[in-house]
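Sanity check

After download, print the first record. It should look like this:
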Amino acid sequence: MSEVTTISETAVQASSQPPAAAAAVAAGAPAAEQAPPASPSDETAAPKEGSVAPPPVAEAQSAANVVSEPAPVEHGIGVLLVNLGTPDGHDAGAVRRYLKEFLSDPRVIENQGVLWQCLLNGAILPIRSRRKARDYRKIWNTEKDESPFKTITRSQAEKLAGILQPLGQHVIVEWAMRYANPSIPSALKKLIARGCDRILVMPLYPQYSAATTATVCDEVFAYLTRLRRQPALRVLPAYYDDPYYIEVIASSLKAALKALSFAPDVILLSYHGMPREYVDKGDPYARQCARTSELLRAQLGMDDSKLMMTFQSRFGRARWLEPATIQIVKALAERGVKNIVVLTPGFAADCLETLEEIAVENARVFKRHGGTNFAAIPCLNDSAAGMLMIWQLAMRELKGWI
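Expected structure tokens:
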């Protein structure tokens, strides 16, 4: 009997932590140094003197749930988590507004000429908005009336605030979306109003590209140009080869595989796609995706026939990075492969591209062409392991400020 599985995030959260981190969290003991250790799985490593360890996850969550309006602090340090964005609603109008902002960014679509504008407004937005609205309705968080991407990103910020609480009330965490709401300018305004004269911006993209990380920086810099008194600024660099990131991704995959009722014949590492032209112009994205894949293969003891790298979410007629995830899914099924798993290591939080495109659309294609079992592994999201990774990255970049 065929099976389409999305592993429960609870199971991954409980078992995907590296041993040292899991033990530390459970005991309330220091989980790591301020900077990620060279060997994340070393259970004997002790924190350096003066390091600040995160409190147990339960305490962090409890602290994050306290809602208050604190007074401005003196010499505050802001931490701003940024994700790509999501529509404010699942109706066609809200999706259209979101897509228009996204596709009008010259970092995303570099040729913003008259032809593109006619195509965008005359065909793409009217048609794509309706289709994507149907997709968003399939995954919508009806309880909060928002997309899961927004729910998860907010939770990541709230939990990080709780974990960083021992540093003092002058460390303040906010979150924003590059497109739609809450906007980057609104989040920066909040941080500055609360007294932050130093701000760490954390784009949650493991691999750098101009269409993701750079456009976040563009928006941040554009806001700062309007200020007479600007805060000091740091930006989290791409962490595609960070040892702890690789360790946590590998651990989450191993935990998810144990929870499955089948053994996969092939595991796909699916990254968001990009026009080949952008890479040819110097964007390092494809190279960084390849490096992440190499490190994961080494960590898991698998070769590229077992752990394959693919690219999803192709848009338009231009040549994109290959191989395409959906084409490989179809080809594997037609070749007789019955069981596959898809992991999306380029996404920090589950969104339309993982919850609908991978878990629904790709699963349907796989089954239609002869496949049997398909599992989409959740992103790290706000799991204990995922939050420890974000904490490690933040602490590394905050050195000298705290």
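If your output differs, re-run the checksum step. Summary of this record's structure: The chain has 14 helices and nine strands.
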